[in-house]
């Protein structure tokens, strides 16, 4: 039993994870999306599962596959993702939001395919809900909330401001300026800040190894 506890430190702990992009429909055949592969979030989900957690993975459209023991909820839009997160947040001790959620979505979704005309086209966009900020405002004492920040300039300053504004316990900074970091590759380079604004930098590693580091930092908060 002692070994089980040591190997599975998150046994019976509910963990909620978001991963992948969201797609915001423009018409029946078109959408606004982004280049997120979902790999980082899926690697974290697998790691959490291997640590014994009950994992709910809210996944945007991605080709990634996860362990069959993970409760995967597939969603398309930011709005869908928000609903799935709200439904699962209360019971989660640990929530990790790695999804690349669209910040804007079309005001109207055309019922029919939009036909081209000779004039240029503009599409009106409205803000989506910031899911992470919403969960941050609903967080109970003891719940842990971890966010990501994807930055191309003023990386650390922007990441710290997101940590504070969204009431996070940790923020994982991905700088797109780092070679080997980012969205689509198999490696990542991260920096993690905690609420005391202590900073930990990590080397470029495979996303599976980065997931181990992130989960280790989270375990350290428990
Ligand atoms: N996030 C979210 N819901 C949104 C937008 C972002 O849950 N509608 C989460 C992401 O999953 C990530 C964190 O917020 O964990 C930061 O996302 P990011 O795009 O880096 O920051 P934003 O707050 O959206 O600000 P900006 O894109 O302007 O830098
Ligand atoms: Ca954003």
From TrEMBL:
Top-level lineage group: Bacteria
Catalyzed reactions: N-[(R)-4-phosphopantothenoyl]-L-cysteine + H(+) = (R)-4'-phosphopantetheine + CO2; (R)-4'-phosphopantothenate + L-cysteine + CTP = N-[(R)-4-phosphopantothenoyl]-L-cysteine + CMP + diphosphate + H(+)
Alphabetized GO MF terms: FMN binding; metal ion binding; phosphopantothenate--cysteine ligase activity; phosphopantothenoylcysteine decarboxylase activity
Phosphopantothenate--cysteine ligase: region residues: 15-222
Keywords attached to this entry: Decarboxylase, Flavoprotein, FMN, Ligase, Lyase, Magnesium, Metal-binding, Multifunctional enzyme
Job description of the protein: Catalyzes two sequential steps in the biosynthesis of coenzyme A. In the first step cysteine is conjugated to 4'-phosphopantothenate to form 4-phosphopantothenoylcysteine. In the second step the latter compound is decarboxylated to form 4'-phosphopantotheine.
Name listed for the protein in its UniProt record: Coenzyme A biosynthesis bifunctional protein CoaBC
Protein's organism: Pedobacter duraquae
Lineage, uppermost ranks: Bacteria, Pseudomonadati, Bacteroidota, Sphingobacteriia, Sphingobacteriales
Region of the whole protein represented: 176 to 397 of 397
């Amino acid at each position: 039993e002692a070994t089980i506890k040591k190997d599975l430190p998150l046994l019976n702990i509910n963990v909620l994870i978001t991963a992948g992009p969201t797609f915001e429909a423009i018409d029946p055949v078109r959408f606004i999306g982004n280049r997120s592969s979902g790999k980082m979030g899926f690697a974290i989900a697998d790691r959490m599962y291997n640590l014994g957690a009950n994992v709910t993975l809210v996944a945007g459209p991605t080709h990634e596959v996860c362990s069959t023991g993970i409760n995967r909820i597939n969603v398309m839009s930011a709005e869908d993702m928000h609903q799935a997160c709200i439904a699962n947040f209360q019971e989660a001790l640990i929530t990790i939001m790695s999804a690349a959620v669209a910040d804007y979505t079309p005001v109207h979704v055309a019922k029919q395919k939009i036909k081209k005309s000779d004039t240029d086209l503009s599409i009106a966009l409205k803000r989506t809900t910031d899911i992470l900020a919403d969960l941050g405002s609903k967080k109970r004492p003891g719940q842990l909330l971890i966010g990501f920040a994807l930055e191309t300039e003023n990386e650390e300053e922007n990441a710290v401001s997101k940590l504070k504004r969204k009431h996070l316990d940790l923020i994982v900074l991905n700088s797109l300026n780092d070679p080997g970091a980012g969205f689509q590759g198999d490696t990542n380079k991260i920096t993690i800040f905690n609420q005391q604004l202590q900073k930990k930098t990590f080397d470029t590693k495979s996303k599976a190894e980065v997931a181990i580091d992130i989960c280790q930092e989270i375990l350290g908060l428990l």
